[in-house]
Write a structure and sequence with these properties.
mainly alpha, about 160 residues
Length: about 160
């Protein structure tokens, strides 16, 4: 092997090592940022829930409640993904690309989202029944709960498929 070939191979190996360290550093930074998203989402959901319990609700529509819950779910999914799994924070992308058996911890994330959507529906139902909320607005609440049920069913169904 010529000196030029050995130098080229050495350069390429060294370059890959640098790239791998940069990727690892980037992955760590991304992970820390997504962990921050979990904390922010949990804080927003806590404000919504606490304010409703004391009768002074923050200005948060059902859509905002759903959005914060979904943000939490998506961050939890991202943080649970292994090195060999495509990284995503999108529920639909995750569910469409996930292979193999279900992961119990991830099922718990979907169950948590469904629990939050059921709580939201339970809080808004009396308003709807007293006509303090329109049927159209309550339909959004019902859809959010239903979507959470669909996602949980799909995640649990992964354990039944043969991939």
């Amino acid at each position: 092997m010529s000196l030029v070939a050995m130098a080229t191979i050495g350069f390429l190996v060294g370059q890959r090592s640098i790239e791998a360290r940069q990727d690892a550093k980037s992955d760590e930074k991304t992970r820390a940022l997504v962990e921050g998203q979990v904390q922010i989402s949990q804080k927003a959901l806590k404000w919504i829930q606490n304010s409703r319990q004391i009768g002074a609700p923050v200005r948060a529509s059902s859509e905002e409640w759903t959005t914060w819950s979904r943000r939490l779910l998506e961050a939890q999914i991202f943080l649970s993904l292994g090195d060999n799994e495509p990284k995503t924070q999108d529920v639909e992308v995750y569910l469409s690309q996930a292979h193999g058996p279900m992961v119990p911890g991830r099922v718990a994330f979907f169950e948590g989202h469904l629990d939050r959507m059921r709580l939201m529906e339970a809080w808004y139902r009396p308003m709807y029944e007293k006509t303090q909320m329109s049927a159209f607005d309550f339909t959004r609440v019902e859809f959010s709960r239903n979507q959470a049920e669909v996602w949980l069913s799909r995640e649990r169904g992964r354990g039944e498929r043969k991939d």
